[in-house]
Specification:
heterodimer; A: four-stranded antiparallel β-sheet; B: 116 residues; mainly beta; 11 strands; globular
Chain lengths: 109, 116
Amino acid sequence: DAKTTQPPSMDCAEGRAANLPCNHSTISGNEYVYWYRQIHSQGPQYIIHGLKNNETNEMASLIITEDRKSSTLILPHATLRDTAVYYCIVRASSRQLTFGSGTQLTVLP
Amino acid sequence: GAVVSQHPSRVICKSGTSVKIECRSLDFQATTMFWYRQFPKQSLMLMATSNEGSKATYEQGVEKDKFLINHASLTLSTLTVTSAHPEDSSFYICSATIWGTSYEQYFGPGTRLTVT
């Protein structure tokens, strides 16, 4: 599976949009971009995934660049409960998830 | 939907004893379950992949005789840490994929193991 690069940490003000970047320059054509998050001492939580097109659900939006070499997860109105480690993972659909170090997002009051 | 539970949530055991952790898919049948381990301030590391009715596939460096995995049904997988030592203290997390879909993984809440 393609390797991903994320900033180790980010801060965001409560109520503002949180934009979390991810680089995956070696992504293959059959690999999806997945985002999970892990709140302290809990299991990871699925957020969203996409292949080529931008995706939106009740939690977040996923913007994938046209060349698919990078993506951005957007939390439109961050709350304190969104403080977590966010993992960007690239994988083919039948493969297991391989977690990198992720981005520690801290939402500040 | 797609809820995965783990039991126990926390366990403390003495060095040399064995401890069993259960992972259940509550509202779906899981073709495959995965076991991860997470040490403090580190990311999740895949330990093994478990398919119902067959032997688990272990990642390199994970001792299969120490971490026994049984996947007897489509809703239950167990991880037994045998002869536990303090260095086995960790956060153990399972996940499950839904039968016949796009292999989405749903994670359990994790089990905190402390070996004294």
